[in-house]
Design the sequence.
């Protein structure tokens, strides 16, 4: 569609707008993209309301899963949330890690960072912080986090392999991630692949599930498992913006699947980072 820098600028602009939108508008669209549906109210998001730590002001309805529900966060853990938005998953994680832990949200949209910081201040949390940064180059030191979570964000990033390499870097040996994202099986119609709204809406930026898993394994993660998977159906009143009636019928009859997955992976206890190399003076 465009080069990687243009895609990042597109996402930053769109999500600056989304920070000011109503939650209902975001939920009825594809990740808040603006391509709203009158047929289906909640296209991708799941209900956080029953989770401890939930704060409605921080829930913009942008996710496609509940990664913090599956993240196995323990008291005292350090948790990093990639693409933290208004802070929703960070505040859920904080309820799990407690006052002894620490939660760091990373987002590259200043409007989202400002909104998240305001929410944290209202809640009086002094162990939740939000950093402005690109998750292809996560602004934290290596071997810091016990857990990394992310909710429907990596599909917006051009270099997904770089993100998983960075997740591996920032996790402690034995640490793990739980990430919700959108993946594909089969090819999307060209009109959807080329559209900026569908990219900002987490659809055209999604990659094949097999490729996604290959990036995870290539980064060095073990114990990789699918914690949850559900089918995402794009309603006709959104598809009508991009496809003819015949194209929609063909798309529905084809083999292409769009899925929300929640994926788990663990950094091995023993890694190259903590092995002693002969001759290095540490043995």
Sequence:
């Amino acid at each position: 569609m465009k080069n990687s820098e243009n895609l990042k600028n597109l996402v930053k602009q769109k999500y600056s707008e989304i920070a000011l939108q109503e939650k209902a508008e975001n939920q009825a669209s594809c990740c808040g993209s603006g391509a709203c549906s009158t047929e289906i109210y909640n296209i991708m998001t799941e209900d956080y309301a029953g989770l401890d730590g939930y704060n409605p002001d921080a829930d913009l309805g942008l996710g496609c899963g509940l990664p913090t529900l599956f993240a196995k966060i323990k008291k005292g853990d350090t948790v990093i949330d990639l693409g933290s938005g208004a802070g929703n998953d960070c505040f859920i994680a904080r309820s799990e890690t407690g006052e002894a832990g620490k939660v760091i949200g990373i987002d590259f949209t200043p409007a989202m960072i400002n909104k998240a910081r305001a929410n944290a201040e209202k809640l009086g949390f002094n162990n939740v912080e939000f950093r402005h940064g690109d998750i292809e180059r996560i602004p934290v030191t290596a071997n810091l986090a016990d857990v990394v979570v992310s909710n429907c964000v990596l599909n917006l990033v051009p270099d997904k392999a770089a993100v998983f390499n960075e997740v591996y870097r920032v996790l402690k040996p034995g640490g793990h991630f739980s990430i919700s994202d959108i993946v594909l099986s089969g090819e999307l119609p060209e009109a959807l692949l080329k559209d900026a709204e569908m990219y900002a809406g987490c659809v055209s930026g999604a990659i094949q599930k097999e490729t996604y898993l290959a990036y995870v394994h290539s980064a060095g993660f073990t114990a990789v498992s699918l914690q949850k998977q559900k089918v995402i159906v794009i309603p006709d009143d959104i598809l009508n913006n991009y496809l003819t009636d015949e194209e929609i019928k063909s798309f529905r009859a084809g083999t292409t699947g769009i899925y929300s997955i929640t994926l788990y992976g663990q950094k091995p206890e023993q890694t190259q980072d903590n092995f002693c190399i002969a001759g290095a003076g540490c043995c």
User: Anything to note?
Assistant: The CA atoms of residues 223 and 265 lie 6 Å apart.
